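tool=predict chain=A
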Amino acid sequence: MVSLKAIQLGNSFSCQICVIGFLSGVCLTSFFLAAITSFASFQISPNSNSTSYFLNAFTGQECESRPEAVERMVISHNLVDVQVNNQVNSIYSAWSTMLNKSHTSEDMFSQNTITDGSKVPRPPHLDNCKATNEVNQILDKRAEDGKLPPWTMWKGFLNNYPLSTKDEQQGYNGHQPISKGAYPPWIKGSDEENYPLTRKAQHDIWVHQHPVNCRDPNVTFLVADWERIPGFGMGAQFAGMAGLLALAINENRVLVTNYYNRADHDGCKGASRSSWSCYFFPETSQECRERAFELMNEKGALERGVITVKENYTTKQIWTGSVPRLWGSPWSYMQPTTEVNGTLIGYHRRMDWRWWRAQALRYLMRFQTEYTCGLLNVARHAAFGWEAAKLVQSLSISEYLEENAKDSRSAIEEYVWSNHEPWTPRPLLSVHVRMGDKACEMKVVEFEEYMRLANRIRHRFPNLKRIWLSTEMQEVIDKTNLYTNWKFYYSNVRRQVGNKTMAVYEASLGRETSTNYPLVNFLMATEADFFIGALGSTWCFLIDGMRNTGGKVMAGYLSVNKDRFW
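tool=predict ok
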């Protein structure tokens, strides 16, 4: 109609030709944009209703299609919206480039980070692994005089805050370590938000594992490899080492871990290869490790009992032996926060081991290494990077330029805000679905039951809409398309089809991937706001323990079954 009217108004043939050409161009342009929109919409969304976020965080590379897979988007005909999306994509791509160069992302936290000639905002969803590691190294080592580390009331980077001369002259002792009543900084929350006596137990385990003088003749050791029995998963290895730590404490020995087969890959460099220290801080000091291995080579040390090894103990002692009683029986008054089949579990016959394994694993995982921190950075970026870029982009250009014009960060940003954890879209529910060969050990439950429980939580907390999903089964991933009112995040890794054994499945992935991807899922589950799993799975059992020593007792735990040993 517009074209016809325009032609009628034209007084000359040349004018009519121009009008027809112009309007034809408009039509072709509109058609072209519509085609791109449809194509992008098809490419970006695996289905038209639900959103799934993929992450490939475990081989050090991100999926090439990551920007399209992040979120279902439709290219808008509004030029302003198109520009916004381009800006978000530019920020996300710049972060990706820097993260591929260094997973620990220290370059991203330097002032006025520049890539391709442009300033790049700091990524709120990533951790400054190098700086965090430096602080934790100080917090995990005794002072030169043998006193405890600087576990003051000052947190993290605040311990590095330079006091002025006036502050010191006036007797301000903010940096003074507090020996009496000090608790380790890796425990979050109050006593009521953790298992009973968690902070006290963590303090005492650290002191036990870090004697003042490792060469004191009265200091004895228990040296043990991590379990390598075929078919043993990572959860079983963690549980086995918890038993050995209990034996060491009961016999007043320092536990020293040796060969860790899951760290025997190219991702673990140098001395950390084949060692627990590739992923987490060592279980004891370097001095004690050196002394223990000296004694291993010393003739008669084993006979004198100065040192023992795993073979000195029976399977029963390791797996179901006595829990340390240094703290009485704190498990006898654990809060009933686990629900199975609609009933809160107040008591069961393995409460002592539930408490102890949580304490042991919390201690062994107290501080992550730069390598593990880097793995988590890649996972967070793949999952949350696009949303983080949108948040950063939402700042006005003037605000951003004004902030980045400063020569350095302010003191509150450097020492206070830097202690906050990386940004995560919350609330976040973690769901671990264990199926496959686990049917020989526990009652296997279909994904629908897990989602029924997820909806129960959502009815109480209606702002919950995100799920971090971990599973080894492809059929579970396929079923996420049925739940269009949830956003799912999951690792982009090859999964099981059928009922292969876990050992065969892990072998098909390779040592590095089969270790890194479940470990990242494990740690993300411990940080989520809510958790749904199966207590019959050792993996879920241990996730629950880490959450209950990480300030999340009152988040509760919905399980699809009972632990098989209760």
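The first strand starts at residue 51 and ends at 55. The chain has 20 helices and 13 strands.
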